[in-house]
Amino acid sequence: MKNILFLLFILGSSIYQSKAQVKESYKAQVAYKIVETSPRCKQLTKGLYERIVKNGGTSYGIMLEGSPNPKSDPSQWYSKNYNFNLHESYADRMPILARFVFDPKKQQLYEEDVVNNKLIAIAFDKKLLALFNQK
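^ that's the sequence the OP posted. Answer follows.
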């Protein structure tokens, strides 16, 4: 009986996890790639994992915060742009290192300057725009 209950628990957990994992739209996936492969993001993440682990953390990540399609993309709010953050992960906090914005109309990637409340255009692989504009 215990084995059956255990199997039902495991099965139920895996079903719940598969429903909880929402996959982004195609455009959001390409926008992620635009951010991740930008020279600025690469500069910020070079050696970052090792520094975080040394400081008691577990990892870092890029999170989609705002999207033109918040229902189909796992984002927190509606935005005309794709809004991302680069954050460190610790057991008790997730400090944000940088914010990136991809504007689909202007076809430009920006780093958000939160101190001066402005967007600064940054370099990225323009070949990815062809993929973004496919669908």
